[in-house]
Amino acid sequence: MVFAVEEINRSKTLLPGVKLGYHIRDSCALPPWAIQAALSLVGGDSISCDAAALPSNIEEHFEKRGAGHQSVPLIIGGSSSKNAQILSRILAPLSVPLMSYTASCPCLSDRLQFPNFFRTMASDIYQARAIAQLAIRFKWTWIGAVIANNDYGYMAVKVFQEEIQGAEVCLAFVATLERENIGRNARRAALAIQASTARVILVFSWYTDVRELFLQLDKLNVTDRLFLASEAWSTSGNLLQNPVSRKVAGGVLGVAIRSAPVPGFEHFLRSLNPSHRPHDEFLHEFWEKEFGCSPSINASSNEFPANSSPEKTSLPPCSGTESLEEVQNLFTDTSQLRVTYNVYLAVYAAAHALHSLLSCSNGESSSGQNISACYSPKHIKPRKLMEHLNRVNFTTPQGEVFYFQGADVPAKYDLVNWQKTADGKLKMVLIGRVDGFDLHLNESAIQWNTGSNQVPVSVCSESCPPGTRKANRKGEPICCFDCIPCADGEISNTTGSLHCERCPPEFWSNAERTTCIPRQLDFLSFEETLGITLTALAVSGVTVTTAVFMVFIHFRQTPMVRANNSELSFLLLVSLKLCFLCSLMFIGRPSVWSCRFQQAAFGISFVLCVSCLQVKTIVVLAAFRSARPGAEALMKWFGPSQQRGSVCFFSCIQIIICIIWLSLSPPVPQPDLDIPGLKVTLKCNMSSVVGFSLVLGYIGLLGCISLLLAFLARKLPDNFNEAKLITFSMLIFCAVWVAFVPAYISSPGKYAVAVEIFAILASSYGLLLCIFAPKCFIILLRPEKNTKKHLMAR
Fold first, then answer.
1. Which of 304, 564, 591, 639 has its CA 20 to 30 A from that of 329?
2. Cβ neighbours around 488 below 10 Å, total
3. CA dihedral defined by 685, 691, 693, 699, rounded to 10 degrees?
4. Is the domain of 267 the same as that of 285?
5. Mean pLDDT of the region 46-62
6. Which among 399, 424, 455 is the end of a domain?
7. Mean pLDDT of the chain
8. pLDDT tens digits, residue range 517-561?
9. What is the predicted pLDDT for the residue at 63?
10. CA dist., res. 23 & res. 8, Å (int)
11. Least confident of 6-10, 72-76, 165-169, 766-770
């Protein structure tokens, strides 16, 4: 501050002809002392052991009230947010501006509560948001927090949580540090860090608290955590030089107050000497600690420095050759001017506001006339200075544009990284900056605590890989979850997916559930085992039917063949052969024409077969009825022509049903997309269930009638009653088709087709064997029974 005041006083453009003065008080960071110092400055009481006398080269200054001079119109101070709040409220009624260089509480931005407050330090909102952006950028979703047990810490956690909301970043724990019980609190926080799975720890506290925390972590041998530092300790030389920090806190990422060079400041510091500033108590104390001697007695006045006496000083007198030119310590190091630069800006802001106030400016009176207003340095009102502070806008000697936004300045921070040097020590390296809410980071310049280029991982649960989805654990934060594999037919092709997406109907998920692939068409083919088996059964049925047909042709003149209506028997064998052959049409890739013909062939073949059996049964019943007295004419109605006509009539009804069905809504080949799985069955889709039901229903109706008629004729007197054989065959036929309906409905895909083929073959074999096997047995193996005498015998 002294350097800035003297630099301004030497300026020919800023406040020309006016010299600034100052008083310095030490509040020792205690609110009562801060209040006492502020009221002393405002009230003009200069009697204080902490007061520094005015420099001898000041020509004009703001003189103290009570001695005929004006009181100080502006105070630069309130270094802590707590002190700043107290001072601002006390000074507000007096309209005395208060400008802080380190108070960072967001609450101080409230112009209603603190109308006289200004600061050159950014609000903590910006650094908390910057740290949250770092966590989001590096995908640290599980973070521990250690904070000071005050507004500084709680505000930081609140802003951090607001910023990470929706980004799936969670706080694993929040531990507090209270300065009054720092030992116990630091131990408790260290145990929380040790127990947590979080590998990244956010610390918002004062550097002395952090030092104790690192000490406790070292005792617990916790050395694998990455710390995110607030500006309160990220640039602490004390921590950087501490051997414990090298073990515990390598790779720290932190937010720091923006550093800027101040030309000439290092020369100013190194040229300081108590002999040139005999009333500077701070310099006197520093000289004693640095050189171990007491500064020389003022030769001209023969007086000791202020507040010092020969009795108080036990150190030997200095030789006068002591100099700061070769001294290397934190005081003389001007490579990182952070808080220092904030103080420098505060002095310049006050000077420019004062310059604007003292310059003649055009104003407007209440009557609307332009007037010229000029203020004298001896008649400055603090309220006027505060008004000009609100409008201040200037460029610093470093070329930086400075202005206030209410109480605040535009937020500017540095991003720093603690890196180990070749000799094992820690150094602070600039890796980026923060401008407002914008983060500019050079990731390649970061040295991680792991010693590798890989960004440390800090998560509660590993990200769910593609093919899985997140499932939150009950009662735990959203960052803790399980990875559930996607169901069949669903995929997730991104890491950390919340949901699995359903594949389109024509697609299915691959084995990894990461992509949808086209579904493979499947059908009952001639190459697979089931298709080969059914084909063999069908061909065997055709062969057996043909063999029976040949036997009946060869023995067509025998009583056995002639007695059982040979014409209908031959027609029945032909229809059975068609039944066996039509089953082959269901095997193979379905096409438009195969879908139409297979159902028509099936329906017509079975109607023809059942019609023959029905007519045969009617003929048997008619024959025995005609044997009764007075019923001789009954057989005239069931002669050969009537039998053929009946078969044709019954068959034509089925043909008409099939023609109407296939004309209006025929079956079409269509993949069965409703069945889950990679393979989708290509089958003949029944566009009209009514048509298919009529075909089956008509066959069932004829079958039931035939069964009823055969049942009525089963006990007719005859040595070889064919009605018995028809009864058994129709029982099998009806049983097969009754069982077919539920089996067909419940069978998936191509197995439904196999069920229908099996029903056709089973019913065909039942008819063939039940009706023709006994006859062939007698014809071929018992020829002695194949006589008219044997057949006519009772």
1. 304
2. 12
3. -120
4. no
5. 32
6. 399
7. 84
8. 998 888 888 888 888 999 999 999 999 999 998 988 888 888 777
9. 31
10. 16
11. 72-76
- CATH number of the domain that 678 lies in? 1.20.1070.10
Q: Evaluate whether residue 452 is within a structural domain.
A: no
The helix (run of H) or strand (run of E) holding residue 243 is: helix 243-248
Beta bridge partners of 715: none
Same domain, 696 and 565: yes
CA distance 91 to 39: 8
Nearest to 96 by CA among 13, 135, 38, 17: 38
- 19 to 12, 22, 62, 71, 387: CA distances (angstroms): 11, 10, 9, 15, 21
Distances (CA, A) of 343 to 3, 79, 170: 10, 10, 37
SS3 146: strand
Same domain, yes or no, for 673 and 560?
Answer: yes
Rounded to an integer, the average pLDDT of 680-685 is 83
CA pair distance 361, 233, nearest whole angstrom: 45
Place of tokens 């029945």: 572
Whether 51 has a pLDDT exceeding 90, the answer reads: no
Are both 88 and 45 inside the same structural domain? yes
Question: Sign (positive/negative) of CA torsion 680, 684, 689, 693?
Answer: negative
| Structural tokens at position 146 | 């250690």
Distance separating alpha carbons of residues 571 and 518, to the nearest angstrom: 49
With a cut of 60, say whether residue 212 has pLDDT above it. Answer: yes
What is the amino acid identity at position 45? D
CA–CA separation, 612 vs 703, rounded Å? 11
pLDDT at 209: 94
Q: Label residue 70 by pLDDT band (50, 70, 90).
A: low
Nearest 10 degrees: Cα torsion 646, 648, 652, 653: 20
Count how many residues are written for the chain.
794
- CA 116 to CA 390: how far, in whole Å? 10
CB of 613 closer than 8 Å to CB of 706: yes
Instruction: Determine the structural domain holding residue 167 and report its residue range.
Output: 125-259+412-445
Same structural domain, 69 and 45:
yes
Whether the per-residue pLDDT at 763 is higher than 80: the answer is yes
* CATH label of the domain that carries residue 28: 3.40.50.2300
| Residue 582, SS3 per DSSP | helix
- What letter does residue 259 receive in the DSSP assignment? P
Task: Assess whether 359 and 341 both reside in one domain.
Answer: yes
Contact 566, 552 (CB under 8 A): yes
- Please determine, for residue 54, whether its predicted confidence score (pLDDT) is greater than 70: no
CA atoms of 174 and 203, how far apart (whole Å): 10
Q: Which value, to the nearest 10 degrees, does the dihedral of the CA atoms of residues 226, 232, 233, 237 take?
A: 150
| Number of domains comprising the chain | 5
Q: Tell me whether strands 679-685 and 520-522 are parallel, antiparallel or unpaired.
A: parallel
Question: In terms of domains, do 65 and 185 share one?
Answer: no
CB 702 within 8 A of CB 743: no
Q: Which residue has the higher pLDDT, 321 or 229?
A: 229
Within-domain flag for 457: no
Could you write out the DSSP letters of every residue in 550-575?
HHHHHTTTSHHHHHT-HHHHHHHHHH
Using a 10 angstrom Cβ sphere, with 0-12 exposed, 13-18 middle and 19 or more buried, the burial of residue 285 is middle
Query: Which one of 332-336, 393-397, 429-433, 775-779 scores highest in mean pLDDT?
Result: 429-433
Check whether residue 535 and residue 633 sit in a common domain. Answer: yes
Contacts 24+ apart (CB under 8 A), 636-642: 640/567
Task: With CA atoms as reference, report the closest residue to 406 among 107, 118, 127.
Answer: 118
Amino acid found at 76 = I
Q: Is 405 domain-assigned? A: no
Tokens 């006045």 belong to 301
Say which residue the tokens 């003649």 belong to. Answer: 360
- Whole-angstrom CA distances from 127 to 168, 225, 470, 638 are 20, 21, 32, 108
Q: Are strands 426-435 and 438-441 parallel, antiparallel or unpaired?
A: antiparallel
Q: Which two tokens stand for residue 397?
A: 């000697």
Rounded to an integer, what distance in angstroms lies between the CA atom of residue 250 and that of residue 568? Answer: 102
Q: Quick check: helix, strand or coil at residue 222? A: coil
